[in-house]
User: Fold these one by one.
Assistant:
Number 1:
Amino acid sequence: MHDSPLAGHPGQEKTLKLVKWDFHWSGMTHFIKDYVSSCQQCSRNKNIHHKKFGLLKPLPIPNGPWICLSMDFITQLPLSNSFDSILVIVERSSKIEVFLPTISSIT
């Protein structure tokens, strides 16, 4: 069912669902997952849907309060007192948060 021209080489979950309609045996799930993951045609033709992940590195520990800040914007909010965005500032060592109303044109 996985190799059928009509099936189009579906992934593990879809192949398992198709096989379960007509068959059942002990270890079927493990067998199908192994079979699909070893399919040469799939490994050559399937697109990778994401970029390779970068290496995660821990952030350095700040030496004191208000030395290292994280900032982000919350945008596309409905207007309130002529503001449509919020600037979020987080002090990394204490996790103190500051929310400042602003307008999206400063982003």
Note: The two ends are 52 Å apart (CA to CA).
Number 2:
Amino acid sequence: MKKKFGMAASLVLMILSVLWILSLLPFNQEIIREVPAKIYESGIAAEDTTVDIEGTKSNPLFGKPDSFSGKFHILSYEKTAGEDMNANIKWYRNTNFQKIFYIDSGRSPETEIMNLMLISEDMTKFALMFNDGTILATSEELYEIYARHFSVTGPDSMSITDEEGIPKIK
């Protein structure tokens, strides 16, 4: 009886150890794509652009949120370009919006892009806002969702309306 209990306890400890190790390892995916988008000014699609995305998306099994680190260059907006310019995007588990921030040579540059965005896990559909209220979106539907839930309240601040009503972007 003691031998069976000892074997069962050892098996449980091994399984827990494997799960703990897996929780520490992110599953990385290289992302390289060009995504067409439109820039909306006052509700009108004013300009076509492309977003070049190149980097690594990390998908940990447990605990930490998914994240992306790499280029997220809006071709019509040079403040997102540069050899050392990188974007970091975080997917949080308890909300349907994400956070984006740029880093250039270890500092946070003034990109005039608000930090809250909507983006699908495969990074093919997204919407974000510039601090003048202009919205970049990959579809009119995403533009409408973003405009309904997010607004600029100051040079570097924004508000969210009906957070629970924000759908998950698929």
Note: The chain has one domain: 27-165.
Number 3:
Amino acid sequence: LDYYTGAIFEVVAPDVNLGSVGGGGRYDDLTAIFGMKGLSGIGISFGLDRIYLVMEELGLFPDVEAEGTEVLFINFGDQEGLFSLKLANELRDLQVKAEVYPDSSKLRKQMDFANKKNIPYVVLIGSEEMKSGQFTVKHMHSGEQHSLSRIELLQHFTENASSDYGRH
């Protein structure tokens, strides 16, 4: 803020308690520190991540259900997330649409995400599951849960995921 010499502005989203999504102002002779004296200007910047959060909070993204994710891996932490990513990539190689939740948010939030996006299956792989090699697969519509090995999990989704998608 020290380099602004005139008007300073901030862009905020009403009805969202996030702070600013952008800002800027006028500055005279800022370029002097780079050896270009006598140049003034104005500048503005926006935070795309903040704009995305505002749009998400205001519900401005359309609900996309057709052709969506078939399997969501719940993220319990860095190690579990990396392990899940390897399995998700194996499923993708088998033409199954799989993703790993991007962070280790509370389980409820991740399950709500799966429900909101109409994702038929979630896979829960915590540290104990990584050690035992048995992974919990939950069918979101029926609530049924099964413990499957890696091979069984891959077989299960290549046989069932596409046919179950969208029947909820």
Note: The first helix runs from residue 48 to 57.
